[in-house]
Amino acid sequence: MPSSHSVTQLLNRVKAGDSGAxxxxxxxxxxxxxxxARQKLAKRRVFDEEDVVLSALKSFYKGAAAGRFPxxxxxxxxxxxxxxITFRKAIKANMHEARxxxxxxxxxxxxxxxxxxxxxxxxxxxxxxxxxxxxPAAVAEMAEESRRLLETVPHxxxxxxxxxLKLDGYTDAEIATQLNCSxxxxxxxxxxxxxxxxxxxxxxxxxxxx
Amino acid sequence: xxxxxxIDESYSVEVMLTLERACDAFEAAWQSGQRPSIEEVLHGxxxxxxxxxxxxxxxxxIDYRRRLGERPAPGEYLQRFAELHxxxxxxxxxxxxxxxxELLEELGRGAIGIVYKARQLDPSRWVAIKMLRDGAFxxxxxxxxxxxxxxxxxxxxxxxxxxxxxxxxxxxRTPWFSMEYAAGGSLDKYLESTGRSLPPxxxxxxxxxxxxxxxxxxxxxxxxxxxKPGNILLAGDGRPMITxxxxxxxxxxxxDLTQSEAILGTxxxxxxxxxxxxxxxxxxxxxxxxxxxxxxxxxxxxxxFCEESYAATIAKVLAEEPVRPTALCPEIPGDLETxxxxxxxxxxxxxxxxxxxxxxxxxxxxxxxxVTAAAISxxxxxxxxAAKADFTVEEILTYGVRDIVCTAVNRYLQQTMVLQVITAAxxxxxAEIERFQREAKAIAHLDHPNIVGVRFAGxxxxxxxxxxxxxxxxxxxxxxxxxPAPPRTAVEIVVQLARAMQYAHExxxxxxxxxxxxxxxxxxxxxxxxxxxxxxxxxxxxxxQSLPLRRLPTYTAPEILNGQAADVRADVYSxxxxxxxxxxxxxxxLANTLAETWEQVRVQAPPALSSRLPGVLPQxxxxxxxxxxxxxxxxxxxxxxxxxxxxxxxxxxxxAWGFSTNx
Lengths: 210, 663
What we know:
The complex is a heterodimer of chains A (210) and B (663). Chain A has helices at 7-15, 22-43, 52-65, 79-100, 123-130, 136-152, 159-167, 172-179, 183-198, and one strand at residues 201-202. Chain A has one domain (2-198). With 210 residues, chain A is mainly alpha-helical. The longest helix of chain A has 22 residues, at 22-43. Chain B has 663 residues and is an alpha+beta fold. Chain B has five domains: 4-92, no CATH class; 96-181, Phosphorylase Kinase, domain 1; 197-374, Transferase(Phosphotransferase) domain 1 (Transferase(Phosphotransferase), domain 1), CATH 1.10.510.10; 377-470, Phosphorylase Kinase, domain 1; 475-663, Transferase(Phosphotransferase), domain 1. Helices cover 44% and strands 14% of the residues of chain B. Chain B has a five-stranded antiparallel sheet, with helices on one face. In chain B, strands 9-10-11-13-12 form a five-stranded antiparallel sheet, with helices on both faces. In chain B, a hairpin with a 5-residue loop joins β14 and β15. In chain B, α8 (200-219) runs antiparallel to α16 and α21 (487-506) runs antiparallel to α24 (568-584). The longest helix of chain B has 21 residues, at 47-67. Classes of the chains: A mainly alpha (210), B alpha+beta (663). At the A-B interface, α9 and β1 of A face β1, α1 and α3 of B.
């Protein structure tokens, strides 16, 4: 189990340049998110399948419970992007607050988020994000964020379906089998979904928070 | 794979949906068996998304072409689309770049890697480059070790029949090595293209050459473990060369055996000890097995075992004897078959001691000298088969072209049974198998106290068989020898036989080969008919050619000998002949030669009992003579009529037996 590595140890390894340590860090982080999501769901008395927030939360642990765990280094993954977008919002809010308090509280440097790499994982940014203990509030934000982002994905041409299956933790190959299409098609649709979320596809009503 | 984000800056959701729609339609066309044109699809798309769409469509086309077994290469696409970025195209094709080489086309792909035809720049020459798949290695350390140790060791070997390895390196963490380009392709493809087997002599020469190279490998402590026609390449001058030696260690770590078709092909050439999963322990004998399998497929145009699925093939490799090559192609010399089958022995210890010993035996064959390998006889095969089926063979009763009948003890039940097992030769003919099954089914339905019952039947380890009840006491022949039976006893026996035949006929089963040796007598004197249905369809030619003298057709109805259709009255004839034999001690017709006896049965009037047995009851003489009529319509119409006629003679109201019972 990843718990055998302490978060501090893993962080030190990442700082020393071992990007391989990011993955267990991500797994631990995600596992915590899943636990929180499950607690939140357990408190709800009435289950409404139409509730997007609820279904986004379900995605958190449905996949993990079935052993489907989103990989941080999956080039076609949606979770890492979702987590990143949520955090950027939180940090931005945090910085506003910090400025208001004139330097009170730790402020993350912009540079922490400003070094995108070709594979989509900027290691410095991840290091900071994953070192934070997820809180129930963070889970709620994430659920809200995933609802908002999912709604930007058109229903047409199986785009929404692919997004939901991917958030549920299915692999590209599994989705391709389920939809009877090429893995290339799944990857292309995921790429378009990510483009929407990144604001590269315009006119979808998505506000770019950057 | 490309990260598309660098291709276009941004586009509206409408454009995105247009692109998606075009891609989905393009894919649907491929799926419905068409070959849609990328150029046409691009034509109707707004400028802003066209560049991206080109790559999306290419990705799909490459995928679907590969599914069709095609091997798309960069050259053709660069010609079609001048605007293509070479690196991005290479990404889509997973086309590797190797410094100092120009990779031109894909020659083949397997579980371990992909082979490309390439042009080396310095020295300038054609080479084949094998890129090893990432998945073939457990770790990057293992990958490193493999290139450093295994491939470099293999590269030091020099033999005219081993594909020379020129260079072994890693590029972008992918290990590769270059080797001589074999212009003649693989033996696999060669056999496929001719669609035929090699002439026996050519096959022997080929495997003789390969065995020499394998011996050289073994001397250098290298076990190939994946010898198969696909790994035998032909140089421009036709010289066979073995490739992929030294790669076997990778096979141990094979990730997904079942999904790779490349491996599926291999299963048919894999030694049983290797197929059983002990690949690490598969030593030199496994290579000798594979050489035998190559010889087998060169001779017969099919591997020794080849089933629909990997698992089914492995099951046969483990448990069954291959069909004898001569059963598939009768012109294969027996000695060559013997050499081949010795290689294919399940037990490694029974194979040749070394590849050199195999080469020497093939040399003897080629020189026209007798080989050292001893043929496995049909009986050996039977005994081995029986052992696997939990039977210990005790005595061979009959040994025919189609089946062997023997007594055997079932080890579980500790009971003696009679086994009727189809021969290896008959197994090669679907019609024979079908016949055996049909007969087994017919007999299995008979349940009568005077008919030997079927205990079980089926197919076990590739052989069809019947296990019959074992009747102690021997047949009528053994019981009475050449002497007559007491008349009353004779009539009582034949009445029971006639009633049993009536039962069989009513169940749609003819015997057609009733004779005293097919009637067993229990110690209590109960007659039991066996060997049912062995000649439903009479092969007249067989009988004329191969009937030994001791098996004169003297109990066979004349219409059968004439090759005409037989019905229940043919069995009535045989019952009459048995009655005659029991009363007189000799069959009705008996000449010195097969031909004369044959002629007598066909044309000579049936002999009268009274001429041999003075004082015989005239009614009995008449009944017997009526059975032996040449024309079926002159006989009793059924076994039942015959039985009733005999029974009336036995009834107390009938005339007293006019002769003493002590003769």
